[in-house]
Amino acid sequence: MLVSPQAERNWQSLASVLEDVLEEQSHRQLFALELGSGTGQHVIRFAQKMPFVTWQPSDIKEESRDSIKAYIAATNAKTVLQPVHLDASDPWEKWGNLSVNSCDVIVAINLLQYSSFKTAQGVFTGAGQVLKPNGLLIIYGVYAINGTITPSCNEDLDEEIRKLNPEWGLPDIDVLRQIAYGNGLRMERIVEMENYYKCLIFRKINK
Question: How confident is the model over 92-110, as a mean pLDDT?
């Protein structure tokens, strides 16, 4: 079981946001996809807090999927499915056998700043297909706004990330909003989180 100190610090605040936005639907069983699940700490905690949600974790890395499997086994989680290999930059048809209009919620935590623009486009294209009408896409991370990154600590973070991979970096909220709209999603809310992090909440426009 891999351990992320950041996941251990922020899971409670993230769970609170999820509980808040899903509260109206807590009377029925929901299906949620987590993109880039990483260690598995988040999805296990979310499952414990929200038993009305069945979770499908996913990750591109085998070591992460192994860690998720270990957390599922250690906690005897009944509402967390076995993790699948999923590359969000792939066409949505390759998204772990998910079908059109099959997900109530898609969650991506700290994924986009460590991804290429193609992956960001893939997240919204896929979400536009696999989310049910009125389904939610919830993205947590650090962002630029109108091409500007503030404060200086976020500029430093962006610089550090780009040193790891020049295609990565803090995505721009306005660009994401436009990509979302082009895929049938509307940005409904921005939730301010700790240390300049934000949760962006998008809803699939009912068609």
Answer: 94
Neighbour count for residue 165 (Cβ, 10 Å) = 11
Whether 15 contacts 45, CB under 8 Å:
yes
Identify residue 3 by its one-letter amino acid code: V
CA distance 184 to 132: 11
Closest CA to 173 of 134, 207, 139, 206: 139
**pLDDT digits 0-9 by tens, 48-98:** 999 999 999 999 999 999 999 999 999 999 999 999 999 999 999 999 889
CA separation, residue 151 to residues 56, 112, 159, 178 (Å): 35, 19, 13, 24
CA 57/CA 50 separation, integer angstroms = 15
